[in-house]
């Protein structure tokens, strides 16, 4: 779901957004709510990204998960109407007054076939656009990890830790189409064995952003690797080595076969 925020007219101002970031505490599971236009297409567990589209700042400033089904309440506009909302739990929040954001200019350059300037708050993106948007968001967060150090932004986990636990579903689907969906360590491919309807797939993870020489990847895509559940669990539970070192050692063994 793409949410839109115009701080010039919204009940959420720049100041309140800044305050939310300043006092963000993941341990207390902060919950927000937002109006949802396509309420008949949203459900509990859906992913959202929020686009700031008013004033001098245009770009993505928040992402997270929808944590309720849509419900009715009085409109935030104070006009007496009743509209639909959903509760949401953010994983990343950025203060556009203090930090760089994933700008609309970048969105138009990389995903030109979507109208980022106009539209309702709470619309469902098609899978291809959602995957490309998540890819841009992933790269942006990776390249701007420093903004989380001084309250310019807030997040549940360290950026690296977040993506090491898995990449968002729409991005997984895009990577499966563009980079393949076979485990890089054992070659296992669920769909080849169980058919295209297989519910379990090998997934992409960020394996700590280091290469075989211990250097940080300039491009975070180089740190993404496709693994089946068995190989990842083995790496997590059966080695005292850092997971990236374990991966490269096992990958070298696999490539020799």
Account of the 3D structure:
The chain is globular, with a radius of gyration of 20 Å. It has 2 domains: 1-156, ph1033 like fold, CATH 3.10.590.10; 180-257, no CATH class. Helices cover 30% and strands 22% of the residues. The mean pLDDT is 87. The protein has 257 residues and is an alpha+beta fold.
CATH topology of the largest domain: ph1033 like fold
- Span from first to last CA? 44 Å
Count of extended strands: 10
Overall geometry comes to: globular
Q: What average pLDDT do the residues reach?
A: 87
Radius of gyration: 20 Å
- Computed structural class: alpha+beta
- SSE succession: EHEEEEEEHHEHHHEEHH
Write the layout of secondary structure elements.
Elements: E1 2-5, H1 14-22, E2 32-35, E3 47-54, E4 57-66, E5 71-74, E6 82-94, E7 102-103, H2 104-110, H3 127-143, E8 153-155, H4 159-164, H5 169-179, H6 190-194, E9 203-206, E10 224-227, H7 229-237, H8 243-256
Parallel strand pairs: 1-3
Antiparallel strand pairs: 2-6, 3-4, 4-6, 4-7, 5-6, 6-8, 9-10
Helix pairs in contact: 3-5
Short description:
With 257 residues, the protein is of the alpha+beta class.
Name a few traits of the molecule.
single chain; 257 residues; alpha+beta; ph1033 like fold; eight-stranded mixed beta sheet; globular
């Amino acid at each position: 779901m793409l949410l839109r925020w115009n701080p010039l007219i919204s009940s959420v101002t720049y100041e309140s957004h800044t305050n939310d970031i300043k006092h963000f505490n993941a341990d207390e599971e902060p919950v927000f709510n937002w109006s949802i236009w396509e309420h008949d297409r949203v459900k509990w567990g859906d992913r959202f990204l929020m686009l700031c589209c008013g004033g001098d700042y245009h770009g993505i400033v928040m992402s997270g998960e929808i944590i309720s089904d849509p419900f009715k309440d009085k409109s935030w506009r104070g006009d007496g109407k009743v509209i639909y909302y959903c509760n949401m739990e953010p994983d990343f929040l950025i203060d556009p007054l203090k930090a760089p954001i994933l700008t609309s200019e970048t969105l138009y350059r990389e995903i030109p076939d979507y109208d980022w300037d106009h539209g309702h708050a709470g619309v469902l993106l098609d899978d291809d656009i959602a995957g490309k948007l998540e890819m841009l968001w992933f790269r942006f967060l990776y390249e701007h990890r420093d903004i989380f150090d001084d309250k310019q932004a807030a997040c549940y986990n360290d950026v690296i830790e977040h993506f090491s636990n898995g990449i968002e579903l729409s991005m997984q689907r895009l990577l499966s189409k563009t980079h393949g969906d076979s485990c890089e360590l054992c070659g296992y491919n669920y769909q080849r064995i169980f058919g295209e309807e297989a519910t379990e797939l090998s997934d992409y993870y960020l394996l700590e952003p280091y290469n075989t020489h211990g250097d940080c990847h300039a491009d975070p895509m180089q740190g993404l690797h496709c693994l089946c559940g068995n190989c990842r669990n083995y790496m997590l539970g059966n080695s005292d080595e850092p997971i990236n070192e374990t991966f490269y050692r096992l990958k070298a063994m696999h490539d020799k076969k």
